[in-house]
Amino acid sequence: MSGTLYGVGLGPGDPDLMTLKAHRLISSARVIAYPAPDTGESFARSIAAAIIPASAREIPIVVPMRVDRFPAQDIYDKAAAEIAGVLRAGEDVVTLCEGDPFFFGSFMYLFERLSEEFPTQVVPGVTSLTACAAQLQRPLTARNDVLTIIPGPLPDVDIRAKIEEAQAVAIMKVGRHLGRLKSLLKDMGLLEQAGYVERASLPGQKVARLVDLKAETAPYFSMILIYKGDEAWTLPPSFSS
Amino acid sequence: MSGTLYGVGLGPGDPDLMTLKAHRLISSARVIAYPAPDTGESFARSIAAAIIPASAREIPIVVPMRVDRFPAQDIYDKAAAEIAGVLRAGEDVVTLCEGDPFFFGSFMYLFERLSEEFPTQVVPGVTSLTACAAQLQRPLTARNDVLTIIPGPLPDVDIRAKIEEAQAVAIMKVGRHLGRLKSLLKDMGLLEQAGYVERASLPGQKVARLVDLKAETAPYFSMILIYKGDEAWTLPPSFSS
C-alpha cells in the first residue's frame, strides 16, 4: 500500500487562519514537504512552524527566486522523485502550500507528476483573495457581479482589457509591477476605487488606498482589489491599517 | 464600549474546513446570528452546530428563498436593527457565513448597515471555489492564467463573452440554470473540459464531468469549473466521486 500525497492549504499567513483539517494533518505528519527559497526561510514552513512535529522528516523543495520567471521544471522532477520514494514506501507526505494548493500555487507541479500513480488529497485553504478583501473591509462582489482575477505580470494591454470587462477585479502578484499598475489604473480613472494589501494577515501587513501609496514596487505577496460595480463601496481617505 | 460585529467564514460545509479562528470565535460566542430559510434548517448554522454554545443567544435572519431574486432589503434593515441593539449593549455578535463573508455572500447586507457605527472584523473562510477544485482534482489556474468567476443566473450572451475571454472559469450558483449552461458550453465546444461539483465537502457531494451529467437542474450550491488554458488537464471519462 502506497502512502497518500496531501496538498494542504495553509491560508494567507496567520496560523489562526489554517483549517482544522490542515492543523490536524500537519501536527501528526511524519513527512512534510514545502517550497523554500534558495536563501532565507520558507514562507509556507513558517506558517506551520509551531505545529510541525520535531520528529518529522522535512523535504524542502528549493526553488531559486527569479523575478517573473516560472521555476525550472527539473526542480519538480527531482522533488517528485524523492516524494515518490517516500509514498512507495507506504508513508504519507504532507505538502505545505501557501493559501490554497490549486489557486495560483506551485503544488500543481507536484500534483501533475504524482497524482496518477499515488492517492492524492487536496485540502483547500483560505486564499489571499478573500483575506485581502477582509483586511480592506470591502466585499469582493455584490449580487451577480463577475469577478476577474488577473496576474500582475501580464502586459498592460491584457490587464486593461480584462478590467474593462469586469465589475470586480483582483490583481495578484503585484510585486515589482506596482508602479506600472498604478499608472495604468490612473489612466483608466480607477485609482480611487482601488485598494492595496500587502502581507495580508501577517505581521507587517499594509492596507491602503492605492491612490495614497507612494511606493513603486511591492513584495511578491501583494494584491490590488478594484470594485467597479454599482454599490457605493468607497475606501475612506484616511484608510490604512 | 460597543461590541464587535464579526463576519465569520465557515468554509464550504465540512466543519473540518473551518479555520482555527472561526472555531474559537464560535465556540466562545455569547450571541450568534446566521441566515436561515423560511422553512428548514440554516445551512450556515448546520456547519457550526456542534460548537455553538448551548447558552448562546441566537439571531436567525430569516430570508425567504425565492429563485433568482435578491432578498428584500427590509429583512436586513430589521436584522441590523436587532444586532445593533446587542452591539450597543457592549456584546459581540458572531455572524455565521457560508464560505467566505465577502465572496458572493449575504454578510455584505449587514456589513453595509453596521460597519460604520460598530467595530467590524471579517474572518475569511475557505470558498466553494477552491473546495470544488480540490474535489475535482484539477488546479484552477496555471502560471499567469486569468480566472473569471461568473454567476450562473446571468444571460447566455454575457456568460459566453466572459468565457471566450478567460483561460479558467468558475460558474457559481448553477442551480436551475444547469440545463441552459450545458447547452451553452456544448455549443462552445467546452463540455469535455468542464467539471461539475455539487455540495462540495458535504455528505451527498457529487463530482462529475459535465458531459456525463444527465440532470437539467442542480442545487443552489453547485459549480461548474472550466479550464481552457494550455495545460493538458483533462478529466478522466470515469470521473465521479
From TrEMBL, chains A, B:
Signal peptide: none
Keywords, ordered alphabetically: Cobalamin biosynthesis, Methyltransferase, S-adenosyl-L-methionine, Transferase
Associated pathway: Cofactor biosynthesis; adenosylcobalamin biosynthesis
Ranges for domain Tetrapyrrole methylase: 4-209
Entry annotated with the keyword Iron: no
Family listed: Belongs to the precorrin methyltransferase family.
Protein name, entry field: Precorrin-2/cobalt-factor-2 C20-methyltransferase
Source organism of this protein record: Roseibium denhamense
Classification lineage: Bacteria, Pseudomonadati, Pseudomonadota, Alphaproteobacteria, Hyphomicrobiales
